[in-house]
Every structure is written in C-alpha cells, then in structure tokens.
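hey m, so remember when u said the tokens were messed up on ur end? i reran from scratch. heres the input so u can diff it against urs
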Amino acid sequence: MERRNFLKNSAAATVAVAVTRATGWQQAHAAPARSSVTRSNWMSSISDNTPMQRVTIPGTHESGARYPGASLGFAQCQNKGYTIDKQLSDGMRYLDIRCRNFNGSLLIHHGAFYQEASFKGVVQECQKFLKENPSETIFMRLKHEYHNSDEGDDGSDKGFVDRFNEVQKEYPIFYVDGIPNLGKARGKVILLGNVSGLPGTDWGSAGLKIQDVYDLASLYPVDKKLKAVKGQFDAAQADSSSNFLYINHLSGYSAFPVRTPYQIAEDVLVEVKKDLTSRSTAGCLGVVPMDYADEAKDLTWRLIEWNTFTSSS
C-alpha cells in the first residue's frame, strides 16, 4: 500500500563486504577524538576536496513528522521534542522535508497530518545552525506531500516551486548546482528536489541510489527491512567511485502485522548498530535517514566515525 494512501486511510479509521578505498583525496581511516569533534561540527575534520558522495551521513526520515494526529502513530516518525535544531545539533546532516502548499505557504505534513511547522521555519533553523557551524553542510530532500480540494490548497508543481523560490530569495543558503565537494558545500543546504521544476539534484536522478523499502507487510517486517538495509550498505561499500550518492532509509511500517514507524525503528536501530560493529570500515555508507533518530544514540556517532578524517583531527 502506498504510504500516503495508508496514512489517509488510517486517519479515516482512527543492511559484509571488505573493499579497498580509492586513492587520491582519501586519508587513512581514523576517527577523531570526541573531545575535539562534536556532533555539531564533525564535518570540520573532513577534507574540503572530499566529494559529498564519499561522506557517510546520519539523517532523519520525515524530519518534521513529530505529531501522530489521528493516525494511530503511523504519521509520527520523530519524537515530539526532536526538533530540526536538535536534529542538526545531534549530528544529522540530511533532512527529509515534506510540505503541503496551503494558503500561500509550504506547511510541513505527513500525509494528511499537519505537523505544526513550515518550510520557512525549517530553513530559518538551517541558516541559524550553519551560521554557528560554518564547517557543516546539510542535504535536504524537499517533497510535495499532500493536497486536497480545500480552498487555499495548491497541488500544482508550479505553485510549489513558486513558494520555494520565495523562501530561497529571502534565505539564499541553497546549493543547487549538483552534488559538490565538501569545501563548496560548507555553510549551504544541498537541495535534492522531489518536485518537478525545483532546482538542485532531482530525486529521480541516476546519480542517486536509493533504498526505501518502507511497506514492510510480511511475516517478519523487521527482517525484510534489515535485508534491504544491509544490501544497500554492501553496495555502497563496494563502490569506490564518487559517481553516486547512496541513500539508505532505515525507516518503514507494516499494516499487517501492525507495526508503527516507532515499533520498526526500535528494532531496526539496534540491529543496524550491531551490523556496523561487525562490518568492515572500508568504503562509504552514504546517507542514512532514520526514524526516531534521537533514540539511535551511539549509532549516530558510529556513522560519523565511519568517515575519512584529516590527520589534524
């Protein structure tokens, strides 16, 4: 069942491979001491000439979905207190932002459920964080999430792009010329556009390798998710090029047996941490968006440590 339809209906019903690193820009793999690098500035210890495709990045799936509404828990993907500013301070460098275009504003939604936030507010938080931590960059997926026939609702791509352009003009922090090296991206939000007409790298681009098995309805939904996650990690580690950005969602739900995003996350996060502990540290893992990412705890730092850090760190 398609996620949006599932949420709409529910409202109505009340990841080893060992590989060698490529040569060139890469340094010996060595994690920085936690005393010198924090979750707020961890990119400061990565070389400017590192392609963003070669940075392992923790992130959040449905970053603004902090309220369940009447969805029986299916519309909530992050804890209520895990706001955008806290996500960024916690080391997340990928945001998944989904909006409804309503009354001239892009409002954060998950399916039909308004999340008491706006795109403009998210961009303000990103600008503030990047001003305070200019070594960092943020990937942002921007998606049109919901529309209906209500007065004031605009479901058109053009309308969505117009609203984005208004915010971008006021907050010119977006990098829209593809996926650069880190040096060019510092202090910027790298846009991954999931609406026709948006600038940046298109979500459907051949340069993105995306694992997003989210409908986990099966006898063993967590096993189904872990198989997809581990397979994507294997593929990312085996690829020593800088041609593709791997995105590996840890998120999902199951309608039968009933498992909410939280119930999937509480098992998947633990098992992925175990997998990474036993996995070779060769290669890059890509972008790893998580549900309930504040509960990932040391998994977030494990992903950060995966990166190639400069010897000065």
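this time it looks ok to me. The chain has a mean pLDDT of 91. if urs says something different then somethings off w ur setup not the seq
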